[in-house]
Amino acid sequence: MPEADVSIKEKSYFTDIPQQNELFFLKGSNNYDWGMKNRLARIFNPESGKTVMLAFDHGYFQGPTTGLERVDISILPLAPSADALMLTRGILRSIIPASTAKGVVMRASGGPSILKELSNENIAVDMEDALRMNVSAVAVQVFIGGEFETQSVHNLTRLVDAGMKVGMPVLGVTAVGKDMARDAKYMGLASRICAELGAAFVKTYYVPEDFDTVTAACPVPIVIAGGKKLPELEALTMAANAIQAGALGVDMGRNIVQSDAPVAMLQAVRKVVHEGMKPRIAFEYFESLKNEKK
Ligand code: R5P
User: Fold this and answer.
1) Which of the listed residues 43, 52, 57, 142 should we mutate to test ligand 1's pocket, taking the one with most ligand atoms within 8 A of CB?
2) Alpha-carbon torsion 283, 287, 292, 294, what sign?
3) Atom of ligand 1 nearest to the CA of 252
4) Choosing from 37, 50, 203, 271, which is the catalytic residue?
C-alpha cells in the first residue's frame, strides 16, 4: 500500500487504537442495559460517583408536613442545587416544571396514612406512567420486620420485574418500624434484602456504629436518609460519616427543608458529599452562605 494511503487510514480510522470498553462508574451496576445506566447517571454524578437527592415525598403518607406545606414556594427554589428530586407523581405533575433537567426519583408505593399501619403499602404507580413522566428511578418502601413485610417485599420485586423490562431502576427504601433496633445489623439485613431482590440502589438510615459493614455487604449503592431535623453541624457530620463509611450519597429531606437556610444547607451538603469537605468547614461554609443572604 502506498505510504499516503497508510497515513489516511491511520488518521481517519485510527486502526492502531483499539476501541475502549468502559466500565460503568457505579457500584454493582455494570451489567445493566444502556437505558438503566443512563437513568442512574442522571441521579449519581458520574464525576464524583455520588448523589445529593432532595427528598420531599413525605406528603404521600404525612400530608402537608412541616417545611412541605407549599412545595411550589419552599422547595422549587432548592431544586437547582440538588442532583435528583425524590417526590410523588402528584407533585411532579402539578408543580415541577417539565423543563427541569434534574434526575427524578418517584415514589411508587403507598396506601396507608400516618393514622394507620404504615407497612400495609401497595404499588401506587404503574410503570407505564413512570415512563411517561420520564423519571430516572422509582422508589418503594420495604418494611423488614414490619407487619406487612412480605407484601412490601413483593411490591419491590414486582416493580423490579416491571422496571427491568423498560430500563427503570428501583430504589429500595428501608423503612424502620418503631420496634426495630436502629443498628448496623438491622440496616445491613434490610439493605441486603433489597439488593438481593433486585433494587438498583438502596436508601437506609445511617447508624454511627459499623455502618461500613452495611455498605460493604450491600452490592449496590447505598444512600442515606436524613431523618429527623438535627442542628446543621450534626447533619453535616452525619452525611460526612456516612460517605466516609462507604455511602454513595444522601437523600435528605427534613434536614434541608426545615433548616433556617435550606439553600445554604443543601450547598453545604453538596460540599461534603461531592468534595469530601470536613463537616466543620462545611458548617462554616453554610454559615457564610446564610449570612450572605441576610
Ligand atoms: C419518607 O417519608 C421518605 O422516604 C423520605 O424521602 C425519607 O425519609 C428522607 O427524608 P428525611 O431526610 O426527611 O428522612
Assistant:
1) 57
2) positive
3) 12
4) 203
- For cell 446543621, the residue is 232
Q: Which atom of ligand 1 is nearest to the CA of 227?
A: 14
Can you give the length of the chain in residues? 294
Q: Which residues contact 74 (CB under 8 A, 6 or more apart)?
A: 67, 68, 257, 262
Q: What is the pTM of this model?
A: 0.95
Alpha-carbon span 286 to 251, nearest angstrom: 18
Q: Is 293 considered catalytic here?
A: no
How does residue 4 score in pLDDT terms, banded at 50, 70 and 90? low
Cell of 100: 427541569
Rounded alpha-carbon distances, angstroms, from residue 279 to 13, 126, 142, 257: 50, 40, 31, 19
Judge whether residue 180 has pLDDT over 90: no
Instruction: Determine the atom of ligand 1 nearest the C-alpha atom of 55.
Output: 6
SS3 156: helix
Rounded CA-CA distance 120/155 in Å is 11
Residue 52 in contact with ligand 1 by CB distance below 6 A: no
Matching residue, cell 450547598: 267
pLDDT digits 0-9 by tens, 220-271: 999 999 999 999 999 999 999 999 999 999 999 999 999 999 999 999 999 9
Pocket test for ligand 1, best of 52, 54, 56, 58 (most atoms within 8 A of CB): 58
CB of 226 shorter than 6 A to ligand 1: yes
